[in-house]
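Box 3.1 A note on notation
Throughout this textbook, protein chains are presented in two layers. The first layer is the amino acid sequence; the second is a C-alpha cell string describing backbone geometry. Keep the layers aligned when reading.
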Amino acid sequence: MRITKHILVTVVQLATIVTNSQAVEQTELQMTKKFYYENEPVNLRIIQALTTWLSDGGNQIVAINLRDSQKSNRFFCDKSIKIRPLDKEKQMVSVELKDNEWFAYVYVGQTSSGILVLRTLYSSGGSGMFNNILLLKLEKEPKYTYDEEKQIIKSSGKEIVLKKLTEISLTDRWQGHIKIEGNSIILLKDRDAATGKLATPKKSVIQMKI
C-alpha cells in the first residue's frame, strides 16, 4: 500500500508540472498564432537582441526576461513598428532603423516539443536581405530580489524568460516557405536567390533532437 501511495503522489506532482508549463504558454505568453505577450506582438527589439550580428559568430545574448523587457525603456519601440499580414495565420513585424536599415520577424509556429520558430530578416540598407531561423524556448526561472530593510537576498517568484537555443542561416535573399511538421522544420525554397526567378521547389527537413 505504501508503494501505491508513493506512485500516486508522483503522478500528481508530474501533472502539476505539466499544468504550470501550460499556464506559461497560455496565460503569460499568448502564443496562439501571432506570438503575442500582454496583448501585443513580442517586442521586436527583444528578438533583434537575441540574434547574432553579421560581423560576429556564436551567441552573445541567449536569454531575456520577457515580463520586465516587453515594455521597458531599454527595448522601447516607437511608431516606426509596422505589422503586415502575410496570410490568414502569419504576420510580419518590422522596424525601420536608420539609413534604410531594417529588421523584421515572422512567427512560424511551435514544434511538438515546445520550441518557438521565428524567421528573421535583416537589411543593412544595401541589396542584401539576410534570412535566419531563430529557435527560442519559453521558460520559468527563479526570481531573486534584495530586501534592503532586512539586508537579505530572497526568492520572490518566477521570471518569464525567452531563451535562444540556436540560429540557422538561410543565406542572403533566400526566398521560400517555412512550415512545421511535428518536431521538424520544413524549408521549401521556390525561387533562385540570385535572380528571384521561380525555380523547382527544393525541400529540406531540419529535425529537432531536443
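The chain has two domains: 1-30, 43-171. Residues 1-20 have pLDDT under 50 and may be disordered.
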